[in-house]
Amino acid sequence: MRVYVPLTLPALRDAHAAGELAPEPGAILAYAVTPGLREWYVSDDSEELEYAALNRAAQASLRLLAARPDAPRRRVVLAADIPDGEVSFDPDQVLDRESLGQVRIGTPVALAKAAAVHIDADDAAADVTAAADALGAADMGDEDARFTVDGAEDHELLWYATQEIPHILG
């Protein structure tokens, strides 16, 4: 199963140094094409569904940035192929829009087995910063804040091969 793990640049740096993403404290939170996501998006196009899962992970990365004001303001998503038996999800997640596509991985994810990393371009930093700052107000129903948060989604994440991670981290 292809999973999309939301990260920050410091978390990617830590994973690169360790050679893996470790489940802490109990599991790695990720996103994938689950039955709930498939039902919500009502699509049979696998590329559209994978893109939806990637976007869910990008939204989760934004939440990580909101919690880490010291992290560089770029959303980061690691794509990896994980054996189905190592991935679990709530079959009732279609009832909760916030958890659509959410999965948990209970074993370490070796970076050597990752497929790619997706990261915001430098020019997205201002919009991502504004979105992270507005996230709390958007969650409380502020429409202007929601508009600001949605502005981060106007930026497509760039694709990088995992061999490029040292270059990305500088």
Explain briefly what this protein structure is.
The protein is an alpha+beta fold. It has helices spanning 9-18, 35-41, 46-67, 125-139, 143-152, 165-169; strands at 2-7, 20-21, 28-31, 76-81, 87-88, 102-105, 109-110, 114-119, 158-160.
How are the SSEs placed, and which strands pair?
Elements: E1 2-7, H1 9-18, E2 20-21, E3 28-31, H2 35-41, H3 46-67, E4 76-81, E5 87-88, E6 102-105, E7 109-110, E8 114-119, H4 125-139, H5 143-152, E9 158-160, H6 165-169
Helix pairs in contact: 3-4, 4-5
List keywords for this structure.
170 residues, alpha+beta, three-stranded antiparallel sheet, 6 helices, 41% helix, 21% strand, globular
What can you see in these coordinates?
With 170 residues, the chain is α+β, with helices and mostly antiparallel strands. The protein has helices at residues 9-18, 35-41, 46-67, 125-139, 143-152, 165-169; strands at residues 2-7, 20-21, 28-31, 76-81, 87-88, 102-105, 109-110, 114-119, 158-160. The strands form three sheets. Strands 1-4-8-9 form a four-stranded antiparallel sheet. Strands 3-6-5 form a three-stranded antiparallel sheet. The chain has a two-stranded antiparallel sheet with strand order 2-7.
Q: Strand-residue fraction?
A: 15-25%
**Biggest sheet strand line-up:** 1-4-8-9
Query: Average pLDDT value?
Result: 91
Q: List the total number of helices.
A: 6
> How far apart, in Å, are the first and last alpha carbons?
30 Å
Shape summary:
globular
